[in-house]
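Please decode residue identities from the backbone states below.
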């Protein structure tokens, strides 16, 4: 298997595209609007465990999921329950209603970037898989250490489209072109029965599926990816036409007092049954200190004149 401890970066020439989606399911991705971005370099795949391990070894950085919890932030919770950990997908034993994600998400003590499902997983088996269980803060720390940055939402979508317009998916108009899976999503009955028809029940190693026209891998599904923009559902109605950087602050009407950043691309848990936001132009969001075993990132870099 290829050594992915060093990431190749792909030059994405600047241009103009139609950003967003006109599908009714995605009101926060509307209106579709013309956006121009300058050229930039982008990692050809998500940051891997091997790469993140090199960062941690060099810097001594400790991720949010590894840090002790402050009892003041969790009033009423017994101190013995305040142990570091993170969110892990856990398939229920039978079909359940899709209106309560707590039926398939669990807070697992000890879950973090090098043990994404807790004590059951170890870094040595995951070198070439995307690093997960990283918060926005954790992703930003790596990017700065690497001399890079996180992509803006506009840069991410422009790169993911690969020069294609008006496509249902980033890879094209068909879910299974040529009757083949071209991205790591969920097949079967969500969330209780994943058939693994695409070859993977969870995160796939980077470069397991074909690249897009720009030479970028896994811009759709596998793991969600952090972007630098604050999240607001109404931002597209006032977004600048050139190099938008996102709104000045965060607002999510579902959780108005929680600071959130944009996430893009969907993950291995997305399907047409649930979490359809792997489709072209759609948006995700996440609280900035949160992490999970389907959330990672990749970096970009400005052109050096």
């Amino acid at each position: 298997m290829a050594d992915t401890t060093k990431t190749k970066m792909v030059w994405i020439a600047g241009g103009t595209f139609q950003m967003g989606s006109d599908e009714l399911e995605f009101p926060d991705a509307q209106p579709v609007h013309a956006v121009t971005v300058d050229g930039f370099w982008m990692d050809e795949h998500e940051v891997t465990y091997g790469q993140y391990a090199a960062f941690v070894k060099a810097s001594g950085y400790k991720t949010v999921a590894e840090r002790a919890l402050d009892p003041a932030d969790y009033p009423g919770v017994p101190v013995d329950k305040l142990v570091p950990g993170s969110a892990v997908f856990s398939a229920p034993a039978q079909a359940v209603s899709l209106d309560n994600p707590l039926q398939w998400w669990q807070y697992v003590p000890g879950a973090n970037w090098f043990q994404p499902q807790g004590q059951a997983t170890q870094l040595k088996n995951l070198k070439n898989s995307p690093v997960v269980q990283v918060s926005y803060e954790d992703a930003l720390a790596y990017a700065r250490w690497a001399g890079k940055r996180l992509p803006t939402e506009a840069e991410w979508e422009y790169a993911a489209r690969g020069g294609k317009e008006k496509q249902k998916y980033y890879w094209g108009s068909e879910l299974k072109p040529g009757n083949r899976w071209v991205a790591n999503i969920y097949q079967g009955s969500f969330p209780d029965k994943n058939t693994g028809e695409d070859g993977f029940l969870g995160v796939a190693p980077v470069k397991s599926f074909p690249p897009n026209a720009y030479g970028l891998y896994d811009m759709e599904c596998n793991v969600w990816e952090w972007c630098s923009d604050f999240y607001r559902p109404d931002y597209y109605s006032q977004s600048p036409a050139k190099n938008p950087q996102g709104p000045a602050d965060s607002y999510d009407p579902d959780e108005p007092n929680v600071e959130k950043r944009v996430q893009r691309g969907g993950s291995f848990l997305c399907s047409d049954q649930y979490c359809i936001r792997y489709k072209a132009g759609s948006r995700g969001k996440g609280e900035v200190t949160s992490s999970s075993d389907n959330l990672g990132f990749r970096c970009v870099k400005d052109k050096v004149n």
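Observation: The chain has a mean pLDDT of 94.
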